[in-house]
């Protein structure tokens, strides 16, 4: 099957389209994630993704370069750990089409290839069935449960810990 998506790093010129997509996606994102929704927050996001410990990817339609979602590899730890956290969200109108699965598969390959990581961990709220299905389809395995793990939307929320290592990925 021919890839429908490309990955690229976010840049300042993406701000208007990115913020518009976030505004349109508010009902889809709540209560799972709080993406950058203001010019200042987008600038802070770009600054964070420019650090060596982070790598941000826009998942874009190959045919049009429209943004369908975001996947971030963050808190990269080197040395004997070679691990990072994974965060992601789709934009409204592009969910449940397999596009984020293609994007995640590409990012996992990038993480274990170019970035030379050994492990990726995704923390997902237990009721977020779409996200759980996405990581499971890419070979992630549930490792545990973390009560009140991340503060999202002003509330500490429980999360399941899912992870994959370079030898178990199905991408």
Helix content: 25-40%
User: Total number of helical segments?
Assistant: 5
Instruction: Please count the beta strands (DSSP E, at least 2 residues each).
Output: 7
Distance between the termini: 14 Å
List the helices and strands and how they pair.
Elements: E1 5-8, H1 15-24, H2 26-29, H3 39-49, E2 55-61, E3 67-77, E4 83-90, H4 99-112, E5 119-124, H5 129-137, E6 141-152, E7 155-165
Concise description?
With 171 residues, the chain is of the alpha+beta class.
Q: Would you write up a description of this structure?
A:
The chain has a 7-stranded mixed sheet, sandwiched between helices. With 171 residues, it is of the alpha+beta class. It is globular, with a radius of gyration of 15 Å. The protein starts with a strand and ends in a 6-residue tail after the last strand. 29% of the residues are buried. It contains 5 helices and 7 strands.
Which short descriptors sum up this protein?
globular; alpha+beta; 171 residues; 28% helix; single chain
